[in-house]
Amino acid sequence: MMEADARTRAATIAAEPLELIGQSSGFIKGSSKSLAEIWGQRELLGLLVRREVKARYKNSSLGIVWSLFRPLVQLLIYYFAIGQILGAARAVPDFAIFVFIGLTVWSLFSEIVSSSTTSMLANAGLVKKVYLPREIFPLSSVGGALFNFLVQVVVLLVAIAVVSHFPADARLLLAPVAVVTLVAFATAIGLVLSAVNVYLRDTEHLVEIALVVLFWTSPVVYSFTFVHNALHGNWLEQLYLANPVTIVIIAMQKALWEAGSSATGALQQAWPPNLELRLLLTLAASLVLLWLAQRLFSRLQGNFAQEL
Fold first, then answer.
1. In angstroms, rounded to a whole number, what is the distance separating the alpha carbons of residues 14 and 198?
2. Tens-digit pLDDT profile for residues 225-237
């Protein structure tokens, strides 16, 4: 009986058509198929995000509170070292709010990129045992980063309400557009790096160095006004503004940092010309980059199980 059942199962499996996995040809057809597979595993993706969050605070007494300590400590360090000792706070009104906005945005970007890069290695056991749309592993890192970001945003909004006030005009609309732009751009970078890191394990160490460099080339702890006064709008300034993270941070500052727009005289802050248009173009470019990154990921994922 058992032998007959085994033959029946073997015959059933043999009758199933072969299906190519992970390398669907064509940008449109392949993308739609990948999105359908990811949507079909949305419940698993939700479980992976919850696992990501729980694992981070496992056996921790303070739990989620730890997600606030790092940006708060960074805020204090930069506020006193750069704001008070180096005097940046005298040229940047509400310097604490200004820095906290930059740190909150930067934390989201750096966490998405760094955690996505190692996501395939961290889930090697699942990758080798069963086929799943492998994009869900870096996407789960994105979900975990967004959870921490929301916690930090709540603190940021409370801080603005207590020590400053919100801009009462359309500038607030820049904030959600900036966040969507950053998530799309960071996810695109994370997808590519997560695939490359499977084949080249030094990638995660290069990413750590690149993030340090990118931090200081983004207006997180210094105002764009300093860059504008030094470069006077020349091609180097335009190259500086070509960084999507820079545009997103400046847009968030304009949306939430009321003092930067209300200051006058020596404290008047500079904004890039046509910032709103720059942000929309950056959003469009980020979405295209995300699409291309997914197609590249799909091409590279065929040998993940063997490499891991």
1. 32
2. 889 988 887 889 9
